[in-house]
Amino acid sequence: MIALLFALLSATMGLNYYRKTKAANVVFFITMALSVYWLKFHATSQLTIQL
């Protein structure tokens, strides 16, 4: 999931580099929504170690 978020942020930077600001904004807000989802449901869950 983290790799996907980094890839989306890289795509946002690439789109901004090529002056595609509307597409970059869309990808950025999608990335922010996924980041909040990941933080809320995955990063805060308890770790379980099964031995």
Description:
The protein has 51 residues and is mainly alpha-helical. The protein has one domain. It has two helices and no strands. The radius of gyration is 14 Å and the shape is elongated. The two termini are 25 Å apart. Keywords: Membrane, Transmembrane, Transmembrane helix. InterPro entries: DUF5993.
The percentage of residues in β strands lies in: under 5%
Secondary-structure element order, N to C: HH
Estimated structural class:
mainly alpha
| Major sheet | none
Number of strands: 0
Shape: elongated
Q: End-to-end distance, in Å?
A: 25 Å
What oligomeric state best describes the polypeptide chains here?
Answer: single chain
Mean pLDDT: 90
DSSP helix fraction: over 70%
Count of runs of 4 or more consecutive helical residues: 2
Low-confidence blocks of residues: none
User: How many separate structural domains?
Assistant: 1
**What Rg is obtained from the alpha carbons, in whole angstroms?**
14 Å
Please describe the structure with a list of short key phrases separated by commas or semicolons.
single chain, 51 residues, mainly alpha, 76% helix, 0% strand, elongated
In short:
This protein is mainly α. It is built from two helices and no strands. The longest helix is centred in the middle third of the chain and has 23 residues, at 21-43.
Give the helix/strand layout.
Blueprint: H1 2-17, H2 21-43
